[in-house]
Design goal:
Layout: E1 13-14, E2 24-28, E3 38-42, E4 47-54, E5 57-62, H1 73-79, E6 87-94, H2 104-110, E7 119-128, E8 131-132, H3 138-149, E9 155-156, H4 164-173, E10 178-183, E11 191-200, E12 203-215, E13 218-228, E14 231-238, H5 244-254, E15 273-274, E16 280-285, E17 287-288, E18 294-295, E19 298-302
Parallel strand pairs: 2-11, 7-9
Antiparallel strand pairs: 1-8, 3-10, 4-5, 4-6, 6-7, 7-8, 10-11, 12-13, 12-15, 12-16, 13-14, 16-19, 17-18
Length: about 300
């Protein structure tokens, strides 16, 4: 079984097929950059991978260079339909939700078995048909990538040239994790630099405190709930945003509210000290899972005004 091998384009530099390449990493910034030198892509919530196609074999590496071809068998099978003799593709393995967002917790569950839901989102091309193309401008590398994945089940990560802040606002509104902005003419550079930057959505929500956790007697955060009619549904656990004083004060408020059973409509597997769901917390987070759990939550304080 072999993929189609078109005539090698005369781009890049003729080079032997390399081993794992350290990936380019995006630096975190607070505001999306603006101006024509930047293009913007959706920030996906998955596992970063590097797909190597050479000598009629596919190998899939994790961000740190571990061979996960067996775990990502479906992605390896899909890669056979990419139209290249040899290639190295940079991308993200995700599990798409019905609303088009991606959910890391769902992905982790999928990896426990033989998954059929995994999708490769390809966003860069480092090597093609015997040639190293990392020195080409990003937009040219992406154009070549789009050609070779066309007609396959690989999802091409489109770049958007609209105003970065406009794209960021839209991404946050529809529940995506954020935006990755890249200098359109940049070469591919391993490691963290300033040619790729990421801006993460921050959302806020008032959630009910359903319980708290202790780790060997020390404060370990609170369990959250979201009201759905008369039911309280699990919304995740937050253990960031507390200092010694705020943790002690909150525990003092929660102790008199202790109860023996979970206040959730559907029991969760976590062990906690459960309380009457009377106190409300202001929570900042980046994204929500398909099940409604907050991701990367941060405790901002109690809402005494509601």
């Amino acid at each position: 079984m072999a993929w189609r091998q078109p005539k090698a384009p005369s781009i890049g530099v003729k080079a032997p097929f390399p081993k794992f390449i350290q990936p380019a990493l995006a630096s975190s910034i607070e505001r999306v950059p603006s101006g024509e030198r930047w293009i913007h892509e959706i920030k996906f919530d998955g596992y970063r991978v590097q797909v190597h196609m050479a000598n009629e074999a596919v190998t899939i590496y994790t961000r740190r260079g571990y061979d996960w071809t067996r775990r990502f068998k479906k992605i390896a099978d899909v890669a056979w339909h990419i139209k290249a003799g040899s290639a190295i593709i940079d991308g993200e393995v995700v599990v798409p939700a019905a609303d088009g967002t991606t959910d890391f917790s769902v992905l982790q569950n999928e990896l426990k078995g033989t998954s059929t839901k995994l999708v490769l989102v390809a966003f860069d091309l480092l090597y093609l048909n015997g040639r190293d193309i990392r020195g080409l401008p990003l937009v040219q590398r992406k154009a070549e990538l789009k050609k070779i994945v066309a007609g396959s089940d690989v999802q091409f990560s489109e770049s958007f040239e609209l105003a970065g802040r406009e794209m960021f606002a839209h991404a946050c509104k529809v529940g995506l994790e954020g935006v990755v902005s890249k200098v359109r003419d940049s070469v591919y550079s391993s490691g963290r630099g300033n040619s790729w930057v990421k801006t993460t959505c921050k959302q806020r929500e008032t959630l009910t405190i359903a319980g708290f956790a202790l780790d060997e007697g020390k404060w370990d955060g609170v369990y959250l709930g979201r009201r759905k009619g008369d039911d309280l549904v699990y919304a995740g656990k937050v253990d960031h945003g507390f200092d010694k004083t705020s943790a002690a004060e909150l525990r003092q408020r929660l102790e008199p509210l202790r109860r023996k059973t979970q206040p959730y409509a559907k029991r969760i597997a976590h062990r906690g000290i459960w309380v009457e769901p009377k106190l409300l917390a202001e929570i900042e987070y980046r994204a929500k899972s398909a099940a409604g759990k907050v991701r990367h939550p941060f405790f901002k304080g109690l809402r005494e005004d509601l």
